[in-house]
Amino acid sequence: MKTIKNIGLVIFLVGLGIFTALPLLGTFSFSQLDFEQLILDNNIKSELFVSSIEQDVVGKPFSGMQTLSPLVADALDKANSMHRKNKEYKKVIYTKTHDMAAMIGKKAGAGFIAENKGLMWFITFGLGILGALLYILPNVVLLGQKGIKNNGIYLENATNRGWIAWMVFVFLVSFYLILYFRPQYAVNWTYLVDPISMRLSGNMAGHWFVYGFMYCVVMTVMAVRMYVKYRHNMYQMVRTTSVLFFQIIFAFLIPEIMVRLQMPYYDFKNAFPLDYDFFFQWNLRSLINSGGIGLFILVWGTVLTLVIVPVMVYFFGKRWYCSWVCGCGGLAETLGDPYRQHSSKTLLSWRVERWLIHGVLVFAVGMTLMTLYSFFSETGTVLGIKTASVQNTYSLLIGSIFAGVIGTGFYPIFGNRVWCRFGCPLAAYLGFVQRFKSRFRITTNGGQCISCGNCSTYCEQGIDVRAYAQKGENIIRSSCVGCGICSAVCPRGVLKLENGPEKGRINPTEVLLGNDVDLMHLVNDK
């Protein structure tokens, strides 16, 4: 079995290595016909840009996007600079330089990669999936009888912030940086999934389709790992199946099929303020102009946020969304599971968490109020502040860097719920309801606790679960996402996730602990 795992690891690394090298490979040759179509599709009126591209790009071969992209960016920057100087604003091209390079690169693709999409998919995604499964499945035998096996987790480089973890960190961060800020280098990745995209939406794949497809693939493979590791715990099995279902069906397949049916692209499970651009002007106009389905989406999104979300949290806690439905939580619970022990449990982390996550929520709500005011008053500023600037700032700092680059890229170093714990505004909103008006709690049986510390170690939200268990207190923290791992790793059955009456849900107790320094003060208070 160990031999099979080693073979699987090699196969996986081969597929991952080829996938990683693709951004710097490939041949590109942009034809005049494709350029004319690009001009027509994007309504380009800049003769300066057209002449520069015809002179420096059209009809010339390029090896890799690193040679093509700078020419496109230079042509676009110079053309826009001249048009703004001459106040020819109708000729200004508002497409970002990297997006323009990506569009040209997509049409200019030639050579082996662009012409052998099926084969390239197999030697990247195919080998990656096959190798990962060969590495994971033997654990059914190697792990022995059912039950959590975390032995040696702090002795392995992959899970103790060793060199393997740092390599994973560099890969994830680099992937997200390309995805958000250098999409032209993802062009070769888009060729791999073009056939799949064509079947679903009828369109060629873009870098966001690559991300969506890869997201589903990674979650599915790592869900198999969850099934193997937590096969003794039915709650974990069902929960993993749930997040997998909602990600693949609701977040990936349905929106793509809706595009094919000439409907707006929309994820019906994505609630505001996590879906922070739902009330942006461009989205509101798009939905209003889409007829009945657009109005339905607008009503659904509003009702989901204001009614369904708080009602569900009241009955089931925030776990119904964060651990059973949310795509961010789904990736954290599958891909991020090996790193959950890195979540900081310090008091400083808790203080930073409270200020940061609630600050993001205030930012999101304030930005949305500005957006709605601008939309209905048909103005671009509020109190002298440009609404678009606030939106762009949030999109960059929160939507891209925090949620993407840091939120996922930092899994191997800071744990699997960095975004959910410190930044997600929806988690903050759900947390308010869960803390003060919910039937959900994790009950504890302090008499059975042996202080092994497994619960606190593997709490991805940084909650010191053992402290509650030792005192027999219910855990009702607003940050708790109800993943249930604390209960799953407890060898004594001390912890239990429950939905019960509100009365008695908060049951603080005072017990004499070794760190109570003023014992007389405690006695006098009693």
Strand order of the largest sheet: 2-1-3
Q: What oligomeric state is this?
A: single chain
Outline, from the CA principal axes? globular
Q: How much is the average pLDDT?
A: 92
Calculate Rg over CA atoms: 26 Å
Give the uncertain stretches in residue-range form: none
Helix content: 55-70%
Strand content: under 5%
How many E strands?
A: 7
Number of helices: 25
Secondary-structure class: mainly alpha
Tell me about the biggest sheet? 3 strands, antiparallel
* End-to-end distance: 61 Å
Short summary:
The protein has helices spanning 2-21, 32-41, 47-56, 65-85, 97-108, 112-115, 117-136, 139-142, 163-181, 187-200, 207-229, 234-260, 281-288, 292-316, 319-322, 327-334, 347-377, 387-409, 411-414, 418-422, 425-436, 454-457, 465-471, 485-489, 519-525, and strands at 27-29, 61-63, 109-110, 381-382, 385-386, 440-444, 495-499. By secondary structure, it is mostly helical.
Please characterize this protein's 3D structure.
This protein is mainly α and 526 residues long. The protein is built from 25 helices and 7 strands. It has helices at 2-21, 32-41, 47-56, 65-85, 97-108, 112-115, 117-136, 139-142, 163-181, 187-200, 207-229, 234-260, 281-288, 292-316, 319-322, 327-334, 347-377, 387-409, 411-414, 418-422, 425-436, 454-457, 465-471, 485-489, 519-525, and strands spanning 27-29, 61-63, 109-110, 381-382, 385-386, 440-444, 495-499. Strands 2-1-3 form a 3-stranded antiparallel beta sheet. A two-stranded antiparallel sheet has the order 4-5. A two-stranded antiparallel ribbon has the order 6-7. The chain is globular, with a radius of gyration of 26 Å. The model has no long low-confidence stretch (mean pLDDT 92).
